[in-house]
Batch of 2 targets.
Target 1
Amino acid sequence: MKSFEYTVQDPIGIHARPAGLLVKEVKKYASTITLSKGEKSVNALKLMAIMGLGIKQGETVKITVEGDDEEKAAAEIEAFFKANL
Amino acid sequence: MALDYRKCAEQISANIGGGANVVSAAHCATRLRLVIADNSKINKKALEDVEGVKGMFESNGQLQLIIGTGTVNKVYDEFLAVTGVSAATKDDVKKAAASQMPLWKKILKTPGDVFVPILPAIVASGLMMGLVEALAKVIPSFGASGWFQFLDLVANTAFALLPVLVAISSARVFGGNIFLGAVIGIMMVHPALMNAWTVTPTNQPEVWVTLGFLKISAVGYQGHVIPVILAVLLMSTLEKWLHKHVPEMIDLFVTPLVTVLTTAFATFMIIGPVFSVLENWVLAGAQWLVTSTGGIGALLMGALYPFTVVMGLHHMYNVIEAGMLASGGLNIWMPIASAANFAQFGACIAVAVKCRNAKLKSVAFPSSLSAALGITEPAIFGVNFRFMKPFIAGVIGGAVGSLFGAITSLGATAYGVTGIPGYLIINNKLVYTVLLLISGGIAFAVATVIWKEEKAEDAPAEEPKKVEAAPFDAPAVIKCKNGVVKQPVKGTVVKREDIPDETFAAGTLGDGVGIKPVEGLVVSPFDGVVSSVADSKHAVGLEANGMELLIHVGVDTVNMKGDGFDCLVSEGDSVKAGQPIIRFDMAKIEKAGYNNTVAVLLTNSEDLEEVVCG
């Protein structure tokens, strides 16, 4: 299992469009990817669930990657967060 | 030299950061249209130098590469293969849904897909044929006149030359060239061939070619369906394969030539003969069943009869009937055919009565009328067999009716008509009435009980859906197997692709539609649960029956931070169709300088089957 934390920089937080891009990215990997904010954790494949977290700018989220390609997935998803969120 | 599509696609992929960087890929007549996640990975200079790329520009958030007519589709196919990106068009979503269907379902669906477009022709012919033939029985002098000959010609054109219609329609269904399809169809009823309807044990067609155990007989396929569909399926598959593998320069003359010639050989040497052997078995089996096994045979034959109509074998039954009459007995075949046909009538009229879809109703009524007159093809192919359950209902009704006919020793003194016109040749009109009532009645009752209209299928978008309690009769904007999404905002529906936001338009968030609102109120499009509400109150997520729906008011309106928006529900609430969810101030959105198009998107559309938008 791999995980990392990220503080959202995007001024609008993770809303519809960024969430959609995230799901698109996450779909590429076989690993199960979980997005957590505080107590709440959601499957990062579920767009509605991600939006339901209501992640705003400056909030820190934890991303957990578990599965066969977790090394690669974690690294690439972290890069994705830095580039887009 | 022909372009190496694979190489071209590989080079494009290499210069845009690979498949991982592609959000979606589509193509038009000349251009490859890509939506790229990270534009900084695009190597524009190198892209322009790729062999096959005639130019490039960026527009509407798309990277457009000019490749050229006739080649862009091939490069596109290779591009998808190289990058592993899936095509994002609606058609492909549909195709994907279809390819998930089990094989037997696909096979059952095919005759329906082929027949629906040609229904007007066969409904017209079916009705006319029933009437003209009945009239000829009532007035023998009419039957002998030129008028009859002419009207019969008009009436039976679509049936006698049915293979032509079936072939053209099949070519469309299977993606072949419809003119090549027409050639195959016409070939199968070519005047140089003997008419299949005139073949009898004593009147056999000439054998033109003998190659070992393979033979080509000079006989046509009048009235046939299945062999034609098979032939055109072969033709279309072959044609598409050849288009892919034959070098472009000689494609235009090599592909059609090879396609038609190969299909012709396969049809006349294999498909045709296999069917004629099957036909003879069916004929012999049918005759044995009815004449040697009494009531049980009649019961079975009544059940099997409509299947033989599907195969196009029923045109040969005249041989059996003529044989019965020639040997001095009654025609006991006719009551069976009548029971089976009238049962299909019963099932079809049940569909006509029960369905709400206006289009289906308009097909089912005339089709059932034609079936009552003894011509069941429109009813079977256009309605009953398409939905299967009514067909089964007809099988049951026909079987029971046939058994009744055998027990009561019904018989006819001539042949050629069934159903209502059958009164003209039956030996006991009263018992015949009971037979028709039993077959039609049972089929009607069974069909009414077991058949339910599938809402998603063929339901025109403008058809109002009436819900008993609270009528929320907005039209459906998205349909899928799991249910329908009604229009949640009053206004003009626009295509997803035309939503003025590239992420929505590209389908990144799922398939759906946009709505240009005329009033600032969003209502729930179905009975469901609120799964998320944006803090800025301009968007909600809803769930119902596996459908995850995002309703997002305006483009970039997240920046208004809730000003001008009022969300009337909260996360976890249950909502009813038509219940208000968001109020928004159109003037404020306009003042803030944002587009107010409401995006209605099924965010999990990729996981749903048969998604249709708009």
Target 2
Amino acid sequence: MQSLFPKKYLLLDIIATILILCAAAMVFLYAPTETNMGLVQKVFYFHVAYAWVGMLSFVVACAFSIVYLSKKDLRCDLASEAAVEIGLVFTLLAVGSGSIWARPIWNTWWTWDPRLTTTTIMALVYIGSMFLRKSIDDPNKRGRILSIYCIIGCASVPLTFFSIRGYRSIHPVVIGGASSGMNMTPEMLQTLIFSVIAFTAFYLALLAHRYTYAKVREDVEITKLELEDMDE
Amino acid sequence: MKLFLHDLIALIKKDLSIEKHTREIFLVMLIFALSILFILNFALDTEVKARSSGAAGLIWVILVISGQLSLNQIMNLEKQGNMLEALLAAPISRTAIYFSKAITCFLGMYGMALVIFPLYSIFYNTPLNSAHILWISALGCWGYAALGVLISAMTIQTRMRDILLPILFFPVIIPLIVAAVKSTGAIFQGETIGTAMPWISQLIAFNVIFTAIGMISFEYIVEE
């Protein structure tokens, strides 16, 4: 049976797999263990990567939505669908991994910090858009409405962060922040950057797979409708 | 412009006249809001401090939840008997349709705010302090209506309809509600308008953003 998955994506899969394995090796073997926090600090390398991919995916979904509205190309809507679904998984992973880190460090699973709150609200917007997608059948109408909702979400989430940024925050600001955050050794920083790159490659590979799935599903739907028409 | 205003007024009159005859929106919303106001009594019990410090937040929660009823109903009105198709086929600009719906919803929300604010003040013995609340709550209600009508126009075209509205609407309206709660909260606490100004400016900015989004995207949403 001929594979429906384009061969060019296979290279991306291989690169992503190698990068992820290398990142894991770097986290556990190369990066030093943090003095105060101990092993639990290693969650941080994954947590930042998840949060980055979650946000990236949200922007990607929004970009595809804008292109869809201007070109009315259904493939853009399918790509946006793929980005939303993967983004949701990563956002939830970011919140979950953050919680695992926070329990021993902050002594609580959850705090109403602007970053935590905004990320979770972002997940809620994603979930909402998935429900919306499921409850519209007409592909053109679905594409139109979903695109608008994605754009509204993408505008609203930064505004939410902006409006609650003044709330007290205990979330460490590692990059670009004052010295109050975690101080990283060069090895730690290298591991973090590598992990983010590895997860971005992994994300692209996932996006390619999820998009192909959506495309195949859509093609099957169209063929089904054509066959039904022929029967009649 | 003259034609636009003429259409807009005609559309608002149409909605208000339907409401006048059916009384399906405002009264239902108000009774619902009153019920929550009474339920709050059991939650707050005799916590005097919580009643006053949480006043702004609680009132906005009541407004947000009960306002959602009007959002559902205002767009459903047009869905019944394919009224929306008729409206779209008429030589009226989409922007006029959008604004008419947003204004009708705003009138309902603001009317409710005008009842709920003083009632909360009476029931929970919390002074309103300043008349500034009148226009600050109007700002909050407008942003709510401007974005709410848009989301409602999306959800009436789906299978899940009414259930979907809060799921889609509440996560995206949060920034506006935060600004509205903070600015009315400052007034409730007896602070000057100057202290609340950063929040009020945010509220105005969010209103402008949400209205612009609504104006631009309504056309795409109702397009057939």
